[in-house]
Amino acid sequence: MSIKFHSYVEPKITISKALDTLKKKGERCLVVIDKHKKLLGTLTDGDLRVAILNGVDLKKTIDGLYNKKPKTIDFSQVKNFALIKKIFTKYSIDVIPVLNNKKVCGIIYWSEFFKNEEIEKKFY
């Protein structure tokens, strides 16, 4: 399993920029952080679709659109595969931000986690 570091955005970006970032990264969820890497929340493609369907201007910032209480794990738990699997399946989420001293130090993606789990089953 790998922890990725590239799908971070700040709350002041526009909805349009968030959509573009999701498209470029090929992900379904972004992690929203402040300038000190403190976790503010997660923003999914679904959050953006709801805003668009409600007629929100694409030039508006994402502030207020993202989930401010996402499920997370501490860096000390990144090897606890049973816990990670439980969080993904119980809450049907796409990402789990990894925190170290309350700051985001990585992201675990559902697609990567379960892809690697299938590989491990074949070889072990």
The global form is: globular
The number of helical elements comes to: 4
In the residues, how many domains can be counted? 1
Mean pLDDT: 88
N-to-C series of helices and strands? EHEEHEHEEH
Tell me the CATH superfamily: CBS-domain
Class computed from helices, strands and strand pairing: alpha/beta
CATH level-3 fold name:
CBS-domain
Strand order within the widest beta sheet:
1-2-3
Instruction: Give the beta-strand count.
Output: 6
Distance between the termini: 15 Å
CATH class: Alpha Beta
Task: Please state the CA-atom Rg, rounded to the nearest Å.
Answer: 15 Å
Detail the poorly predicted runs: 119-124
- Strand composition percent: 15-25%
Description:
- With 124 residues, the protein is α/β, with parallel strands linked by helices.
- The chain has one domain (8-123): Roll (CBS-domain), CATH 3.10.580.
- Helices cover 36% and strands 23% of the residues.
- The strands form 2 sheets. The chain has a 3-stranded mixed beta sheet.
Give the secondary structure arrangement, pairings included.
Elements: E1 8-9, H1 15-25, E2 29-33, E3 39-44, H2 45-53, E4 73-74, H3 81-91, E5 95-100, E6 103-109, H4 110-123
Describe what is shown at a glance:
Helices cover about 35% and strands about 25% of the residues. The chain is of the alpha/beta class.
